[in-house]
Amino acid sequence: MKYKIYLISNKPQFFNEIQRGLSPEVLHLFDGSNYPSFSKLVNDCVVHCPTEIVIIMSDKVRPRASHIQKMISLLEQGHGFVGMYRLGFFGFKKQLFRQVGMMDERYVGGGYEDDDLYIRLKEANISMYISEEVDYLKSRSSWNYALSRPHYLQKWGGDVKLTRVASRQMSEENYPYNLGEGNYTEFLPFHRSEIKVRKIQKYMALQFK
After folding, report:
1. Strand 89-93 with 53-57, pairing
2. Angle, to 10 degrees, between the axis of helix 149-156 and the axis of helix 113-124?
3. How far apart are CA 125 and CA 98, in angstroms?
4. What is the pLDDT of residues 142-175, one digit of tens each?
5. Is the pLDDT of residue 83 over 70?
6. Beta strand 128-130 pairing with 165-166
7. Residue 184 is inside which H or E element, if any?
8. Structural domains for the chain
């Protein structure tokens, strides 16, 4: 399978260190400077990527080549979304976005776009693999999460994290992005998800009304 690996960051000084750890895999830098949201940054990177499989990471993770190969294997098995440090290091086929829509750019700043995606995967009955198995350098986020929370509450009818019930109030926005021709993919159903992070396991029991 053809794929490209991107570091989406406004801190290019970390590129060489991350590339050394990934060798012989080839890393590409996608400049994250001056973006209004994490969602917009991811969407632009996906459109820019010439391959069907896109692998994206932040400058806080330190994956190895073996993690890339495991991610590709999990995608080949049929998982729709693979996050090996949640949305700090993740990969998917563009067909996923063709089916469920792009990242929601109404989440201004950062935060809640990850929960939004997990909910949408359950809604579309598409499996995900979520873990925290790569090294992660914890530091304060540069995104303002408070800006995103009102949209999350409005879109899903309340705090799904607490209620375990989603009531969709808003449709996905249609963005004028070209992801190329569709590529038929048979994703595994959501109940085949492998979620190794306790606070995300709650989405297995999520209900819709």
Report:
1. antiparallel
2. 20
3. 15
4. 667 788 999 999 999 999 989 999 999 999 999 9
5. yes
6. unpaired
7. none
8. 3-208 (3.90.550)
